[in-house]
Amino acid sequence: MNRHVAPHLSQFDGHHVDSWYAASAPQQERYPALEGVVKCDVCVAGGGFTGLSAALALAEKGLSVALLEGALIGFGASGRNGGQVLHGFASPMRLFEQQLGGRAARQCWDVSLEGVALIANRAHRHGIDCDLHWGFLSTARNKQQRQALTARQAQLERYGYHDSQWLDQAALREHIDSPRYNAALYDTGCGHLHPLKYVQGLARAAHAAGVRMFERTAVASVDEDRQGLQIGTSNGWVRADKLVLACNVDNGGILPALRRTILPVTSHIIATEPLPEALASKLLPTGAAVCDSDRVLDYFRLSADRRLLFGGRVKHDNSNPNQLVDERRAKLARVFPQLANCRIDYAWGGHVDMGLNKLPQFGRHSSRIYYAQGFAGHGVALTGMAGQLMADAIAGDIGRFDVFARLRHRQVPVPASMEESLIRLGVMYHRVRDALGL
Ligand SMILES: Cc1cc2nc3c(=O)[nH]c(=O)nc-3n(C[C@H](O)[C@H](O)[C@H](O)COP(=O)(O)OP(=O)(O)OC[C@H]3O[C@@H](n4cnc5c(N)ncnc54)[C@H](O)[C@@H]3O)c2cc1C
Prior knowledge:
With 438 residues, the protein is an alpha+beta fold. The protein contains 14 helices and 18 strands.
């Protein structure tokens, strides 16, 4: 028998993180904690986009499913991210081509497009009101970044994608009023949403499709033998044939081998006070989401109630909240000097699951245990397909899942105790390159 034991879920104090999302999402349905024994075909660990997508797709295929969320639905990255709905991957397609060959790389690209469509379809089909808005800008501020965007557009065209339009400085002003950028790609096939509303809507859809949902129920151990899996929690057990591990950076708490290819990189977001309508529509007239082209990048957008949500990395994770807000605010003022003195109403952070080569990590630990992680800050759309492909694979259609599972990943070269130092070093190095325009 194989036994895996997870440490307790850290950081959870009974509530969602104090974000603008938590403040603006409607009252969430609560699901009970597991007590006693549940039997099912598939147990899903993790109630974020990945786990809920898998659970919903499995239930739609007629399988019995129990989903265990250690905290609350959407407590992890899915309920607190930048909300940017993006096709493609955090890593360039060139890496997929090198590792898998052109045909399989093309399949991966198509899956990423399907991920964006899946969000729109599920929001429509399940009546999920999640403030979905189309339009996305990749901005550039120097020659190197403009060249990188030109190359990116050429690559999109090679893949037959034509919804991305080059904007020079004058055209850019129709989308963003910022002195910081002088060119961009404008993509109507990407957009943004309210992630907590979407993840809660997915949970309702999964529940309605027959998934037995449990919150405050962390997977503490997994025992595997020939008969199947026994998944232990503090007050009960799930007996299942298969397990989907969708605990993001915490997958490795259950299967330590999965942790060795992931770095938990913290990213922070601030939300301003609601901006006057005239100011909001001057700053971002088309309401597009924006991501800059720095290696240590900033991402931002307007919320439905016209707050500027401005995310990125701060220098010191452990800094006190005021320092963190000041740091983010200073970055915000570089992009929109008009907002230098505006009030900041919310500030929060979360862990981005970052592999060293930023390729998504899908795989099987055994014939019974499937996992997906390593979305590298690009998971809002791709997680939906990760869940869908795991469900397809469990139901016998392994093809597309296995294409991703063939990708190779590098191990983090330091022990867990030194990871934070490694991340800081990496960020510092990339900041210097950004500053020098390299
Ligand atoms: C600040 C921030 C901004 C981001 N911005 C963007 C963006 O704009 N666009 C984009 O595409 N991506 C973005 N991302 C990345 C994206 O949010 C993630 O890739 C995605 O949400 C991952 O979903 P998931 O379901 O795999 O993980 P999660 O949403 O983290 O879900 C994992 C769940 O597992 C639970 N769990 C952990 N351990 C256990 C256990 N032992 N038992 C049971 N449950 C457990 C956790 O409580 C959690 O709810 C961002 C991430 C962060 C942190």
